[in-house]
Amino acid sequence: VLGRLFSTLSTTTRRLEVDGIPVLLSDTVGFISRLPHYMIEAFKSTLEELSYADLVLLIVDVSDPPEKLRLKFDTSKETLSELNVSADKTVVVFNKVDVLSEEEAKRRAKAAGADVETSAFISAKTGQGIENLLKTIKHGVLEAAELEAVLTPEKAANLYEKTKYYGGVVSVKERIVEDGRVHLLVKGPEWVIRELRSSEDED
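The structure corresponding to this sequence follows.
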């Protein structure tokens, strides 16, 4: 890590596997308050890709003093809002719980204005909470959207074949309804469901 501010504005992307399913995890620059206007624009251009993500993990250092923690959290939420990143696909992750008790970490998070029930509490150092975070990622990314349809057996078979193209990133449940048609429920990343829905409309 270089010991100077703004040494890089680039995003680092790495491949992560969740239950054997590949996920791309991008680490962006941090959010800093009270930046000059030209620096804000530089950061925003780097962070624009957040709007295309299936899930956004907002990492917050819960060991910061309460006032600093609240400032960082507010700055981050404001920046995400300006970038039109939906709060529904944002998970707040409070890191460094190893230096505090769980009770104190949650107290600080609540005081900062976070929803403790939907937030994740982890320690990147000890691994505490990582398993639960991976489950959150799996649910948020791999089950972010769904397509539900009642189709003729032929159309259901066509749609089912199309889901195979995406491998393990989608889950499919099917059942026969009274008139012989097939009820399909497909869950997967938003971009996959959009493509499947588009192909269904074309058919």
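The two ends are 52 Å apart (CA to CA).
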